[in-house]
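Suppose a colleague, Dr. K., hands you the sequence of a protein chain of 462 amino acids and asks what its three-dimensional shape might be. Before reaching for any lab equipment, you can write down a predicted structure in token form. Begin with the sequence itself:
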Amino acid sequence: MKCLRLALLLSVCGWLLGSCADDKDDKVEPASVTLPTQGVYPLSQSADLDVLLNQVGNARYVLIGEASHGTAEFYEWRAAISRRLIQEKGFSAVAVEGDWPDLYQVNRYVKGAANGASAEEVLGRFRRWPTWLWANRPVADFAEWLRIYNGTRPATSTKIGLYGLDVYGLWDTLEALQRDFPEANQTTRDAISNALACLEPYEHDEQYYGLAATQRTACTAAVADVLTAVQAQVNAMPAGNEQALNALQNAQTAVDAERYYRSAARNGTESWNLRDQHMMATIDRLASFHGPASKIIVWAHNTHVGDARYTTMAQSGMLNVGQLARQQHATEGVVLVGFGSYAGSVVAAPRWGGPLVNMSLPAARANSWEALMHQQLGGNKVLLLPEWRRNEALTARRGHRAIGVEYNPQEEAGNYVPTDLPNRYDAFLFIDQTHALTPLSTDPGELRGTPPAAATQALRNF
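The predicted structure, expressed as tokens, is then:
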């Protein structure tokens, strides 16, 4: 089994580097190009986001990225954009690249539930590594703002929600169903118990389950029975019942997680696509739940937000949320917003499951998008990219830095995704010098179960 795990890890790591950051040892970029002044605006205060909000217009979906999971400014500006979208554009919900059960507790808090004395306390209960993705100071501040904002809304108004999109947590979603769905009838309770009993031999080890399921009978049918039972109950419940939404999403996530961990043991591209398709389906479910006039904000890494068709990801058969949103919802309005920085500091781990480290962020490599912006734009900027698409020289693919939860500053070459920036995003926020994120906890021992499957260890970088 250990040999199989090692072989799987090595094969998936090779796939990830080969598809997301082609030719990692080749530092040659396309020739330097002069960046235009059109569509370039200064960025220093919230009012400078006016140009971005004008571009958003009446769009129903705004997806906001980040170039790392450990940079304070990316979280802070993303929250600033979201506050204005909620207040001025009437957005209904924020959906983030995080686990549904954990984020649903934050959702309850921001809507006024007495399930914690503070957002920091609720976020502090997160136990799946890497906890700092959402258990950090900017997210706690945003959640407190959202709770206050919801408290000022009329009693008849729908409160703004904060939800998780991701597919991880096979055991967590089933246990949340068992704990948080008091309406469950005997058929549903029996289905949940049967699924957990089937999974019991794997002892909350999703890696072990994914590998073992390729060699023996899996728990696919038992988990699917849970979704069937929950769907039957939810269909009989009144529309707009968030308890029903929570139950249905937990059941659906369990089904997709079981499939995800099995696929991760076989094929990295397939599991990546399953994950992003799950996230897009969750966004659609949230939009449906909040009604035809609802508008959704998404927070996720650039590798999920920026349209994969304009990177080398597409050559490996990978798709992502940004691509799916454009393909499925272009008529309703979709705006993709990316982030990048030139140098500074960042928090990440030197290895999967390792301690959190405040690391120096080296200057971006020559002729990358970040280096050109640093040299030519002069400080923090908002870029509106549709005008850039007319210039063929600007649509040539060049490196665009992507940092995940694992990071080694000495191996920078593997962190650049060849990107047609003007087409990958609709807007881009460039922060010249960035600073490390402040987590609420740095205890690497705060893990729930074990790290995800070996394939996920590589994929979770983003």
